[in-house]
Amino acid sequence: MAKQVVTRTYTASIRNQQQVSDDLDSLGFAASKLWNVGRWTISRVWDEIDYIPEHNELTAYLKSHERYDDLHSQSSQRVLQELAEAFNGWYGKRRNGDTRANPPGYRKHGDKHPRSTVTFKAAGFKLDTQYDRVRLSKGSNLKEYWSDFILCEYQTRPNVDLSTVESAQQVRAVWTGKEWELHFVCKVEVDVSEAPGEKTVGVDLGINNFAALAYEDGHAELYPLNCLKQDDYYFSKRIARCDDADSKQANRLHQKKSARRTHYFHTLSKHIVERCVEEGVGTIVVGNLSGIREVEENGESKDWGKHGNLDLHSWAFNRFTDLFEYKAEMDGITVKYVSERDTSKSCSCCGRERKANRVERGLYVCDDCGAVMNADVNGAENIRQKVPPSLACDGGDRSNGWLAQPSTFLFDKETGAFAPQEQITS
Ligand SMILES: [Zn+2]
User: How much distance in Å is there from the Cα of 345 to the middle of ligand 1?
Assistant: First the structure.
């Protein structure tokens, strides 16, 4: 066992919900409005000069906008940062040939704005662990002369004591569909296990296979999204049938859908970390889409969908990597993020880069060395290779073709666990 300072997010309910919900609502609506202003601005810039602004450019541009002063400046900054991340994530996916990815949409249901999450950073909150209270700052537009902050009385889960954390980094006010809750992002000192080994594994996150893993010794695993897709489809249909999108029934369905996703991600992240422990992995390398931004040659990516996306990118991937990182950390495994740039274009066997980034029926075919492999596994292996191998292993000697037959793990609804799919031999 070793001591390590890690980041933890603790959820807390708000005991004085009645007193603060109107104030929190106004901040949540304001965050949605600012998101939409930013969203509109990005599409304008894109149309004019084929360029997606970075969040700091967006912030500089919108700082004087009226909506920016609805929230504390750090909270406004965070909204625009999330928007820029969502755009870059989508853009990276498109660039990697994922034509089904849609750009982030506007946050609007008809004339109504949803309640967006509001993030409060260092200067935007004051935590009082003695009385279990936190003061959240408003923007100058929403301040009334008697109160320029919202005082929330919180209640954490019984096993959490915020007075023992090293520091609280930020507080998020999150609308659950029913009420507001608080998420405290803290630095905490914990006991972690020794690393299970020194090997590396590459992880490619995507929309067809939610995760593709390429291990150092050459074998690979796929985790398709089948179960989550069925779930999404089922719930979306049922929610669409509700008369009112804000009705109790619709809210319940939203909550159920969200709970099932969370369960799925918990189980998947746990399963993958367990596999890594079994394989003696010390470092997990994950492809990170944010920070990728280049104009695509064929201009195809300008063809934005009319409807907002399924929110599977920004939403689900962040949620998954949070859980995943947490579980890996506890087992002494380091998670590193590398740019996913060009990882789907290059051949992981010979390194040759192809111009066309299309894959044939999910296969990557290299004209140069003749390798044929699952495209997502090829991506995962390229991601893995972005981190230099440890001294203990030389990376091994792999022959072509080993990546062609990854094992596939499917989520079994009956057992609630991931199990290898029976090999089908034709
Ligand atoms: Zn090749």
Answer: 11
- Residues 388, 390: Cα–Cα separation, whole Å: 7
The alpha carbons of the chain give a radius of gyration, in whole angstroms, of 23
Counting Cα atoms < 13 Å in the Cβ hemisphere of 243 gives 1
Ligand 1 centroid distance, CA of 365 (Å)? 8
- What order of strands is seen across the sheet that includes strand 2-14? 118-120, 167-175, 180-192, 2-14, 149-156, 133-137, 125-128
Strand partners, 407: 221
Which residues of the chain carry a pLDDT beneath 70?
Answer: 1, 96-98, 144-146, 289-316, 355-359, 389-404, 423-426
CA of 61 to the centre of ligand 1 (A): 45
Ligand 1: centre distance to CA 176 (Å)? 48
- Please give the backbone phi and psi of residue 265, each rounded to the nearest 5 degrees, phi first: -70, -35
Q: Write down the residue that tokens 């894109």 correspond to.
A: 46
Q: Look at residue 313 in the predicted model and tell me its pLDDT.
A: 47
pTM of the predicted model as reported, rounded to 2 decimal places? 0.63
Q: What is the helix (H) or strand (E) element at residue 192, kind and residue range?
A: strand 180-192
Cβ atoms of 137 and 120 closer than 8 Å: yes
The answer to whether residues 249 and 235 touch, using CB atoms and an 8 Å cutoff, is no
pLDDT in tens, 260-316: 888 888 999 999 999 999 999 999 999 876 433 222 223 233 223 322 334 454 456
Span from the CA of 142 to the centroid of ligand 1 (angstroms): 59
Q: Which structure tokens are listed for 277?
A: 């422990």
The three-state secondary structure class of 42 is helix
Place of tokens 């290779």: 385
Structure token digits, residue 158: 């019984």
State the distance from the centre of ligand 1 to the C-alpha of 216, rounded, in angstroms: 18
- Whole-number Å distance, alpha carbon 276 to ligand 1 midpoint, is 27
Say how many Å lie between the CA of residue 352 and the centre of ligand 1: 6
CA 13 to centroid of ligand 1, rounded, Å = 54
How many whole angstroms from 404 Cα to the centroid of ligand 1? 13
Give residue 367 CA to ligand 1 midpoint distance, Å: 7
Complete domains list, the chain, with CATH: 2-192 (no CATH), 199-423 (3.30.420.140)
Ligand 1 center from residue 348 Cα (angstroms)? 7
